[in-house]
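Suppose a colleague, Dr. K., hands you the sequence of a protein chain of 189 amino acids and asks what its three-dimensional shape might be. Before reaching for any lab equipment, you can write down a predicted structure in token form. Begin with the sequence itself:
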Amino acid sequence: MRRDFTARKRVILGGLILLVLADVALAAYSWQLSSAPRGPQHRVQEITQQDLLRADIRRAQAIRDSIPAIQKDCERFEQSLSPASSGYSSVRAELGSIARKSGSRLDGISFKPTDIANRGMTEIAIDATVDGDYKSVIGFLNGLQRSTSLYAVDSLALAPENTNQNAIQAPTHVIKVALHLKTYFRTGA
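The predicted structure, expressed as tokens, is then:
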């Protein structure tokens, strides 16, 4: 029994020595690979990576240099907004004028203001309905787009027609569109 244990011990010790020698050989091979000179393709990859990093730095510098001009443009835009004191009447008048020019009819204009914190601005949600034939409604939307004032159309939907059984039927080529717009007023000094 004692011999069995000694033989086993020698086999285990021999296996352990082989594992340590294999580990040392792999470490030497790994060290040799890491210290070997790199090929031309690896150098090309490094140069390409450096060029990309330099391009990123140039772009970041260009962005940083353009920030003052962007800030001036933003301030000029904010100053171009109507003041809140006269904005509602000017929006109502302008939308009415666009509707008349397009041959459509504007109804039910309602405003819902929302203050924008720390900007000195108020966002105005405008709900209205426009009715007319297809060409006049498209003309109205085109007029909104070409306006010098800022109008952002959030949604368009066909509005339900309020029909009365005793009333004379409206022409079938007339459509009614519910609009949800946004504009902005300047509230700060």
